[in-house]
Amino acid sequence: MAAKKMAIIATKGALDMAYPPLILSSTAAAMGWDVQVFFTFYGLQLLRKDLSGIKISPLANPAMPMPVPMPVVVSILPGMESMATMMMKDKMKKKGVASLTELRELCLEAGVKFIACQMTVDLFEFKKEDFIDGIDFGGAATFLAFAGDTDVCLFI
């Protein structure tokens, strides 16, 4: 019996949207699935060597729990994005949640194939040396060749 296959399209580069494709792909790979993640547009940020710019945005994120009730207008104040990011990273560390760097490494070690969208790389004028080792570069056709024959295909 052939292994199950899962394809994920990762389009977001915010901290809260970085975890789902990495957690799902590492879990599926641990279950023996064949997994590919196609990183495009802002999701491409997750493959860059430097993840320090990955932040969480409290703006337009009303479901984000805050330690004290705050009006939505407070989220637009200068420094709120950095504060929210710091609070979330601190909470994750206290709860034992792996960092993005750790999850990426786990995915690659488990055989998850990461594909950086070449069109987006060109569009944003990135250089291949901006990205971590162990990834592929390809276009939509590269991803669709795999995704068209998967058991699970997710857009995140």
Determine the mean pLDDT. Answer: 87
SS elements, strand count: 5
Q: What helical percentage do the residues reach?
A: 25-40%
If you consult CATH, what is the topology of the domain at 5-54 and 100-155? Answer: Hypothetical Protein Ychn, Chain: A
Rg from alpha-carbon coordinates: 17 Å
CATH superfamily of the domain at 5-54 and 100-155: DsrEFH-like
- Which overall shape is indicated by the principal axes computed on the Cα atoms? globular
> Which CATH class of the domain at 5-54 and 100-155 applies here?
Alpha Beta
Intertermini distance: 28 Å
Poorly predicted spans: none
Kindly estimate the percentage of residues that lie in beta strands according to DSSP: 15-25%
How does this model look, in words?
This protein is α/β, with parallel strands linked by helices and 156 residues long. The protein has a domain at 5-54 and 100-155: Hypothetical Protein Ychn, Chain: A (3-Layer(aba) Sandwich), CATH 3.40.1260.10. The protein is built from five helices and five strands, in the order βαβααβαβαβ. The chain has helices spanning 15-30, 80-94, 100-109, 118-123, 140-147; strands at residues 5-10, 34-39, 113-117, 136-138, 152-155. Strands 4-3-2-1-5 form a five-stranded parallel beta sheet, with helices on both faces. Helix 4 links the parallel strand 3 (113-117) and strand 4. The longest helix has 16 residues, at 15-30. The chain is globular.
